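Lecture 7 notes. Example A: sequence first, then its structure tokens.
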Amino acid sequence: MVNQPSEVGSRVPATLLLLLAVLLALAAVPVTAAPTARAADGDGPTVTLSKKEAGKGGEITVKGSGWRSEALLMLLICGKSTPERGVIGGTNSCANADGRAVTTDEKGAFDKRLPVAEPPEPCPCVVHVATVTGEQTLVDVVFTVAGHPTAPLPPPADEGRLAVLATTRLEGESSLLTWFGAPPARQLVFTVGNLGSAPVEDPVFEIGTAHGVYAPQWEERQWRGTVAPGSKAQIKLPVELSAGAHGDYQVSLRYGTKVLAEQPWGVSRPWGVTLFWVLLCLVVPAAVFRIGMAVVDKVRPRPAGLVARHAHRTRTPAAQAPPAPASLPWFTQDSAPPDIRRSAPPENRPPPTTKGQAWTRNGG
């Protein structure tokens, strides 16, 4: 009986240690699962390749997930690129002629075959997947084009060091063709300075045009020239909208991943198109009505009396002239009664004869 308290006391710490071990094990489960959950929540679009290396003329399968549903994507093989620095030089470094387009499904996934082609720039190369419309999203995956030349990337100082030093502006005016629906065109004029320590040669900018609440539609514009370190240069890039565009637009300038400037652009309505349709709606019905009336007038039957009158009107002027009054054969100038002789017009009365004059003087 004396040893029982000691046995109980020895069992209590063992039980406590067992409970403590279970609690620590349960506490360790969420600690190890939390990074996995955060990684899943923070994961953006992903892209996987069936092969990491292939030669020209081959084919790879590109699969993706986590993209926007029913988004239009562009798939390209680009040289002079890495996932860390992106595609240096824009899509000018990519095999654009052999690119492919694909639309994601409702879950944001896609599966597309891409032919292997040699890009215009040497490797390192990537498979470049980017959205075509809407918010810009892109993923670059390392890929090796077998047999393609390889060259080191330029130092980071050669890119992303430009800044806009003055207010941007749009130059140009609308022409008469624009009034009739031709695409409005301007030039975006801005001044940039090189804030880096190395010159920037032939920089590639992106011009985005947005209308209303829609996202900008980006197009690449390359400027030929060199901006030395610490110097500045004035750059003019063309901007063009679609045919018949009108309303309030926003023109954006982007270099690399940074938007350098934004410029509003109010485009007037092409009233010439409206005028054309109004005139078309008025002239065409009138012309059709006149043609229809002429056809009806040609084919309708005519009354017999109207036909005879029309034929009488078409005779020659000589036939239409009334006949001269015929003289009465049973009367002569001398034997005509006095009433008829007096009523005859003087211009038609024959000159009197000597016998008649004598007869008149004698009181006959």
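Example B, a different protein, same format:
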Amino acid sequence: MKTKYQVIFDDIKSNILSGAYNVGEQIPTESALQDMYNVSRQTVRKAILELSNEGFLRSEKGSGTYVSNQFRSKSGGSSNTKTIGVITTYISDYIFPSIIRGIEGRLNEDNYSLLLASTNNDVAQEKKALEMMLSFGVEGLIIEPTKSNLYNPNIAYYLSFKEQDVPFIMINAYYEELEVPFFCLDDVQSSYLATKELISKGHTQIGIIAKMDDLQGKYRMKGYIKALGEAKLRFHPEQVLSFDTETKHELSANLKNFLSENREVLTAIVCYNDEVGLEAVNVCRQLDIAIPGDLSIIGQDNSYIAKNASIKLTTLTHPQEQMGRDAAEWVIKKLQGKKDLRSSTYYQPVLIQGETVRALE
């Protein structure tokens, strides 16, 4: 649990970094802060002193305490750091090592260093990561949004980067409430192709496992619905299993219930990604559902786990390392003053045949 002094310190620092307090603006008086936080004057002074030592505040005798931007030079971040910040939801899992490898490879070519943070798809951790990047004074930023299909409470931090002319680009998704450049897989097309492949093999009862707090999940659901509509197949809500970051740990149990309940109906499922696809394969083995004899499964993203699994998952491509490289290239060109850079890029997925889909008789 935070001490009272730490709460004041963190709140004022957050207000400065998010732009709620502007450089040169006077912060509330010590008396006002005492009342706001219900603390002693000594506690307030301790927080102000530390914020001043770190370059976030400056005090003028007889006048008051004002917001300073000296923290940037103190962190080594005000001039030519040659450091690019990278914020992803995860670092060591799934496709993220490949994306980061692409970013790092391109940055190294121009002697940029990389400051890396992850959010675990949690907005509170994203806030901390953004504050770290602002405090350090990175020259540019590459971000994978956190819970991109939900309202994000950290938008003010992104606006702070814009106000400071720090270029940033988003990968895998973007915040729809921001005008922001991005590099994304065409997620609608990915799920559309997956569903269309199953339909072409004679499947008409096709379920989907969808993660709904990320924009990728929303668009992959859209591609699934689009393919069903084109084929004049009915959309069945009961053939959809949705989950989010908080319920992901329950996915195995929920899959077991879902597949048991739909065992006599479903002949195929489209999965949010390869990780979910392989979880579905494992659950099917527990339930004695043969793959692909009883149920066809398609993953998405062509991840290393799909390539190394005991059964070769039918999946769709994701640019991974290329996306990381392209995002780093965009930031470098922006810093070099290049104009007319693309504001949006969609990579087109390609189906990769595996062992988890069969044609119905």
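Note on Example B: The two ends are 62 Å apart (CA to CA). The chain has 13 helices and 14 strands.
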